[in-house]
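Feature request disguised as a bug report, sorry. It would help if multi-protein outputs had a clear separator. Right now it looks like this:
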Amino acid sequence: MYPSLAMALADDSASEHANLRLTLPQCLLAIALFIVPLIGGQVSIESQPLAPGIGRVIVSILEGTELPLFTHALIGILAVCALAITLIRNPVLQAPTVRFSIPFLAMFGLLGFTVTYSEFKTISASAFVEWCSYGALFYAIVAAGGRGQRLKLLAGSFVAGSSLLALKGISEYAATRASDPGWRIFANWQNPNALAGMLLLGLFVALGLMLGSSKVLRLIWCLCATVILFALILTQSKGGYLAAAFGLVVVAAFGVFWGVGRRLLPAAVPVAFALGLALLLNRSQANGGAFFRVTSASTTQEQSSGFRKLLWKSAIETIQREPKGVGLGVYRFSSAKPGLTQQTHMAHNTYLQLAAEGSAGVLGLFVITISLWVATISRGARRLPDDRNLLRLGILGGISASLAHSVVDSDLYYFGLGFAFFGLLGIGLQLAADGTGPEYVPFPLRATAALVALLLVAGGGIYFGNVELQKAQLRAALMARSQEHEDFAQILSLAPFDGEAWYLAGAYDPSLSQEERIHAFREAAANSPTPRHLRALSRAFVAAGQYETAYSVLDRVFVYDPNNLLALKQMVELDVAQSDLSALRNTLARIEEVEHRSAFTVLAIPEMVPTETYEARISAAKIVPNVKEKARLLQAAVKGFSKYAAVTLPRIKQMAALSAEASFGDETLSVAKQKIDLAHGAALELAKIYRSLGDVGAAEKASSAAAGFEVD
């Protein structure tokens, strides 16, 4: 691909034709920028099962979700190798100004410092390695990216990858629209909003290349921009639409200021084509088609606006409570502490999440860095050639749109987005009149910098990627019931401070004694005090008959999440196991209180009805002696499961129709069947109780509800 693209670019500028020969670092950078839109869209949350074999690993890298850290490491290694080769080879390096580098490097330094006091050090360290990849790419582009056509090649590589990503999303919609005309495309990204963030960057760079090119290349970049914008529309991301509009306004304003306003008019062509295609598609589809989420905005307002406001309030409270930050990459474990939402991986606002994880100082340094970048690329713009200004406008538009989108999503926390964002910052500086300059650097300093970069990005990425791979393959072995005891010893020797590795050993190693199992869960909770690990430790104490200790461990869960539904359900089960009616009634009262809070009523996925409190009531009803009290518990449970069957179950069935292993909100059809069976039994029991009380009408309603609990 790259030789032909390079020749086309050379033809577009004959004066540079003879000099367009890419160095090895430039080839590595072009490859990294090309593949990051395609495989950089997943977020590391917890390990997923992956069968052994190199073929499985390759498929997971290209299409799967099991190995995000491993995949990101491969991309980061390309960038850091480009940087290291340039540092070793060249005594004179292109470098940003000192005024720019000081806040830029200080921001990364403060982010790295948060690892030292994070309660989840392994997770923070792996997140810092990914951020170091951002920095490595930025400096590699500045040091090795070159000028003129070479920068166009790097930008074109990114647009090519973004265009293939867009085509993938369009193909996904084409395959799904018959069954769901309002489908929002994912294109193997974590969610449609994150995909929109990446497409925004690709769109504006494509527009910049189109406006600054001539002949055939203008048509190629126009087609790329059209495809990318059409895919952006199919994400149905309202934040993406607004950010795109904001980016266009910025491009128009700076274009007039830089004296190239008239040259911007052709940008209307791909915009008009993409909008026209979307409108035609919309007319041919029922239920709003590609604009379903926009045309039904009132039905999504609670989720897209109300839920985000709660997240932002939670982030602000976290900043006030922990001014030094909670640690890079671990906001999710503090997100529920204010009690406004359930635990959420992202704050849905880059700026608030930066301040919550790294302190207000990190946010301030980020703002200073971006302000200096904008000032630098704007300086002397009128003296530069139009084609250079137009590409720079595209870069500026993409960065501006991404910054706007970061108000409603945590863009920089998706590796692909953060990597591309910092890469475009580097390209923008190289396009500026005086953004960078040659600096002589002695070999010892260059060698040291190369070694540190390789250790942080390549070494750290390989380590955390390998740990992730080992855990994924161990989970697959556990599912196949083919694990050996040595597997647990191997993963623990590789990652002795990984809480999830200790959790896997405690949960699945059959050779452990009761004391060893408690020790494993203690280590899991000590290295990563997640609610899941604490709940597992509590269960281990219950198995050992240490009920008071089990209660105290569950209380620690509520420090991180005062509304944790699984912990409340587990506490009910513990009360039932001890037949402690007094404690049980207190826990049930606590459950009713939680059900009236926003954390229960305003959800990230409105269609995902939580059932833990209903399951807890069914458990409680087993030991409640008062028949009327038992009926009230079962009635509330049946009512809640009826909502689950009406709202959540159809979505699970829809996903199961696509794939037997597919899930909706991490819930598979088999899990849904178990819940529906439980609800069916509760409804039958409720009908029986009402008959014994002589309430025939209520008994018939309960029987009718029981008949409705079915999974086809």
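(second protein starts here, but nothing in the output says so)
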Amino acid sequence: MSWFQLGGVIASLLFISLAYAAPAIQLDTQAAPHPATQQALDKHLDQHRTWHALLHLDQATPRIQDPNFLLSQQHGFSPQQELLLTLQALLDPATATQTYCRFPARATWLSQQLNIPLNTPDCPDLNEFLAKAPADQIDLVYASENLYSASSMMGHVLLKLSGMNDQNRSVAHAVSFYTEVKGFNLPKILYDSVIVGKKGYFALSPYAEKHRYYAEGEQRNIWTYTLRLDPEQRRLIQLHLWELRQTQLKYFFHTYNCATFTNLILAIANHPTLSASTGWVSPLDTVKLVHDGDLIAATTITPSNRAMVRILTEQQSFGWKSNFKQQLQQQSVPEQTAGQSTLDYVKVLLSAQYYAQYLTDQQKITTEQAQQIAIANEQKIARLIPDYLIDFSEYKTPDQQPKDAQFYVGLSSEDQQYAIRLGGFAASHRLEDDNRQHMSESQLRIADLAVLVETEPEPRLRVDQFSLYNMSSYLPYDPLTGGLSVAFSMGYDPLYDEHLDRRHVAQVKGGLGLSHQPWSDLTLYTMANAAVAYNRRDQGFGYIEPQIGLILNTVYDGKTLIQLSQHHSLAGRQARYFETTVTQAFRLNPEMSVVFDYAHYWQKNDSQTRWGVSLKRLF
């Protein structure tokens, strides 16, 4: 069966790494070195960032362990040894054809660097791929967080290849790297994703399908960045994608994810801001890297229908939205009211149009019904304001979001005991951070570790809190598009016992709730949380924790968080107590902020207070 089929449905099923094993290239390790090898060493090509990107290295360590991808894997891998063996295989007539067809990007780059004439052999499968999946243009695509799925807060990045294929048809393909997540055993999923590595899949699929999945299925906003790459760079990237086709890949959440993979592919272009050694890279980091490197030639924004409804009606009252929804369900659109400006009425008509499309995405009305509403509204809009356009170029753009790794240090006090508190995490953000470029107030903390350095009664270092995974989203409820607030955390956290003494427990906690946004800078929420926990004294136990709170963006780039909780233990000797927390953050600049924390715990006969101040740096 051919990889590609008529109608543009290409290698979505067959262009997946691990599809079949590549035949091993047999090398004669006793062969005399070719003169070009000394030239390569003299030019230090083994240290070149493009060579490291082609090998998917982190420093000098390969992220890919497949022996069919690394010729030196069985001979003691190093970037230099891989370079020498690749040159040997390319320059030996017995292995040249097989090596070029397996590693066309390596061969092309080495030929350019060493000025070696390259006799391109006939590689039928490679030629078919190049003809069917052109790269006349390469875009970086960023799919924002899903408003209704807090676990998607980091967004997702992929590459889009487009151009004219061998049948002179315009085609576009998505280049994706992912892993499968099955089951509900989160500890095992995290262990496999971070320690062991999960099976990685590299797929080339019709871009329209991928776009439809994110825009309609998950209702994500999509930013498409056309990259400023010359034909030689695009060709090298295209050839390297072919090399990965026959490669076994392992997905690691923190070191080899969709963002790492995409960054490595782009690093082949040999741009100073794009390096093979990047550490922990998030989708947002990749967007910032291409933005900082001035690699973006053009930007296209595709808001989801759900986001468009929220944007166009954000100034309307809760009652107006409820009435508007009822009218649309009856297939009628509100008429222009007295005193309503033409522009405001056009927004109402557009809201109806996008809401109908959103209901179509949710399969609640038919496409024909949505089209009837669209046609009627478009005719009205054309009469009122011809050629009306909405400019989203400055609306919640990813490149304007704060950096998503941070380190903090400060002073903490409890029961008149003082300590230095320091910590940090690699992704992603806290509630007190600047979330105005996100679609909702949210936080995502992964491996957030805070420690206390105490001096009394004797010097010691102890863990104050460790959040293995902590995510929450306070999405305001909307009568038109709904929306629940959600929270989930897993970690080693402090609780208070019957004497309000601080004790740490390992716990898993989750919650659901509702949020309301009376105006753009204020979010009010209520949550119902439940948890299961364990410590040595009480063994396993559960508790419930209802909460109410507010999140307020204040003047002078400040932010205030206030929360009232009731901790109600279901077993063991854990106390039933109330907790009030107040957090005030002031941003000194986009990368630095000062945070003040205050917490008061009380029950019938006792109370406890804890406070702290810290300096935070984002990087």
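Even a blank line would do. Unrelated, but nice: The chain is about 25% helix and 35% strand.
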